[in-house]
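Chain X:
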Amino acid sequence: MSRTLVLGDPHGNIKGMLQCFERSKFDYEKDTLIVLGDICDGFPYVKQVIDELLKVKDCLIVLGNHDAWAMEWYDREDPYHNATPDRWWYDQGGRATMESYDNKAMPKEHLKFLQSNYPYIVDKKNNLYVHGGINPSKPAQDQSLDTLTWDRDLIRVARHKHSQKPKYKYGGYNKIFIGHTTTQSYGTTKPLFFCNVINLDTGAGWSGPMTIMDRDTLEYWQSDLPKDLYDIQGRS
């Protein structure tokens, strides 16, 4: 029986992602994978991460703010001559992404894969998948791209609401899967469940594990910590 699994922000952490696939017994041919964005920027193995994701028959990716930064750079006519990368992106993980391609152009197949992203996904079970969050007073199609990729308010207000009304459903969705705001900022490396909002960015691009979750059962699997996988650190 096929499943739909949701993957928190990979951030170039290839070893963590492979452990998530192995531990969840992910089937590259039968299962559907939804990636919550930020494939890029973190550990210098973005190339390997995309190579692996390209092997998945049914892989859907949500646009992350780091992916948007990377695409803006790699979609340039000639990105490595007479140009300097945006310093903010470079310092926030862009350097690692560039290193993963040996400071050369990204292969067209990889850029096309990143460009196949969705600003958000709503599935047949009325679950929403988005990188940052939403303004719950507006339908998804009316959200700005900036809100969808950068919002941190949804998880904050959902945390507060959960203590009062844990069954509250933001935006009328069944479940809302998000990344972007690492759960480490809330003092944990486990997924967060606040009302119908589920945060799966458990810090895989920093010092936390990567998380993959079964959409329907909410069972999840995590990788080892980066310090046990690499002799380098991710984003600082």
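Chain Y:
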Amino acid sequence: MDPKDTPFMDRRKYFRLTQTLIIRCARLSMPPALTPIENHWLASTVDISEGGLLLRSPERLRLGEGLEILIELEKGVPELKLIGNVVRYHAVMYDKIYYVPVAFGRMDAATLERLQTYITRASAKR
């Protein structure tokens, strides 16, 4: 059987780094404003790629909901600010924690480069 025809083949476009990072999230207003409509809450990543992340959150999120995500990749370096959307609603709740896939929206070249550099360096350390 051709590998691309395997029913459960991982078709992800980007390498996913299994890494727990503490992040801050806030729900966003509707476009075009895209501003936080509430205070940020603490959450964490299960894994992260340049295309998105799997979010571990105490907050229940809806399909399509927009998020502002602030990630401190390194101590003493400004947080990385990303915009994302909940892309699937198969949010699994386990022990009052939700696991939600989030896809990043467009990001500027500098932000993308910081994220790519972090993922490359962290994966090389493993």
